[in-house]
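Title: Prediction job returns without error message
Component: structure pipeline
Severity: low
Priority: P3
Assignee: unassigned

Description:
Job completed but the reporter wants confirmation the result is attached to the right record. Sequence as submitted:
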Amino acid sequence: MARTNQIPMSFPVTPAMGREDFLVSDCNREALAWIDRWPHWNAPALYIYGPEGSGKSHLASIWKTGAGTKGQVIEDIDSQIGNRPEEETLFHLYNRIRQTPGALLMTGTKPLALQRFAVPDLASRLKSCPQVALGLPDEDLLRVLLVKLFSDRQMRIDAGVIEYCVARMERSFAAARDLVSRLDQASMTEKKPVTTSMVRALLSPEQATLIL
């Protein structure tokens, strides 16, 4: 009898975003130290930047939980910089926070020096604030990150599969999230747990096919 693949259903994935869930490594240790240092910052704002999926939202969530109503978070300021009305709104917010017992945490993908501002006064104020970068994961962090991403989807994966992924995948947070999502879909479609053959088929489709 021919085997019928299951049609995968998309279910919401809720990542664990607590302080205890943040994976610490050399690529993010400094940023986390800044989050933990609040409210003893030496400026009214902090800017954290890094590649997609590098943990910016997680850090913002940790900080907002601790700061409460005294903290304001603006994520992805890349989409606002260069837009004069949005920059003016951010400028007024910054000035208001500077005059009250509060703080502002901003996130983006690149240093402020590389951003093209439309409002010079905003540029000068933000560039005077501390900036901290998030880097790409090393092997140890990538290994733990994969375990966490699978766990967020209630998936238990053999350690050998994790090692196979780490040795062959792109070293980035975005690539890890994409691979886990695709393996989740493949696992549901094939009605079997994730295997190294399945990983090989996704990472090197020209060299392997799924073993049905």
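Comment from assignee: result matches the submitted record. The chain has a mean pLDDT of 89.
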